[in-house]
Specification:
With about 150 residues, the chain is α+β, with helices and mostly antiparallel strands. About 35% of the residues lie in helices and about 20% in strands. The protein has a domain of about 90 residues: Phosphatidylinositol 3-kinase Catalytic Subunit, Chain A, domain 1 (Ubiquitin-like (UB roll), Roll). It is built from 4 helices and 5 strands, in the order H-H-E-E-H-H-E-E-E. The protein starts with 15 loop residues before the first helix and ends with a strand.
Length: about 150
């Protein structure tokens, strides 16, 4: 006969809302750090990770100039591909829209069918190609250019 297992003490259970509140409070304390002070109040763990990676030189900021003239700073890892830049841009825009309560859905398929990203007049046509292969470095600017109809 097997020996009876010792009774485990019941773990303190927290409701999801309570855990979320504790997590948000901890994040709020984190963003008071001078390194992270320019992050928004409803910061995500992903944004904190990106900011720390920037500080340690593991990431870079690529400024994406939209057709309306607005420039969006997007953080990507140093050896990011064009596709990773596109995904980071999408995530940045989605977070900003959620915080502002604006349009919640954009058709990114439509955007990438309608626009190219360009750097120094060259289309970033190959999603697998690394940004550095195009000569893109920290703080460089890429632009949306409307595709011409065939």
């Amino acid at each position: 006969m097997a020996a009876a297992e010792p009774a485990e003490e019941p773990a303190e259970e927290l409701a999801h809302a309570e855990v979320l509140e504790l997590f948000q409070a901890a994040l709020a304390r984190l963003v008071q750090d001078p390194l992270l002070c320019d992050l928004p109040p409803q910061v995500t763990a992903e944004e904190i990770g990106s900011q720390v990676a920037l500080e340690y030189g593991q990431a870079m900021t690529v400024r994406v100039c939209k057709a309306d003239g607005e420039t969006v700073p997007v953080v990507v890892v140093q050896n990011a591909s064009v596709l990773e830049l596109k995904k980071a841009l999408r995530r940045h825009i989605q977070l900003r829209q959620a915080r502002q309560g604006g349009v919640q859905h954009l058709s990114w398929r439509y955007i990438w069918r309608t626009y190219h990203l360009t750097y120094n007049g060259e289309k970033l046509a190959d999603d697998r190609k690394k940004l550095r292969e195009y000569g893109i470095r920290n703080r460089d600017e890429v632009s949306f250019i409307k595709k011409l109809r065939k």
